[in-house]
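User: Small ask, check this?
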Amino acid sequence: QVKLAESGGGLVQAGGSLRLSCAASVRTFSTYTMGWFRQAPGKEREFVAASTWNGGKIYYADSVKGRFTISRDNAKNTVYLQMYSLIPEDTAVYYCAADRLLHSTSQIMRAGSYDYWGQGTQVTVSS
């Protein structure tokens, strides 16, 4: 069983920055692919970024490339999402997710592939 807890969301003006954190309560954190997803009101949950177990492969949605950075500290069982140059379209609830059995890019970028989810943290970007 993996428990995930996101933090760091909030209200920020367009152009600002936020760093989200996701702490995992599992001893084998380093074996999990970690992903960030987001869901805006009335929209489906969408992929944002992901990191394989050692950070060797990193994936980003086109909409956040060059603005967001995912990183992980396996010693702290934590994955981060650093967000820069935020725009109102980034407003959403952000979720972190974990799974150990993801191999393909399509699996890693699909919400349905992940078994474990956090409760989400709200990010609101004002114009």
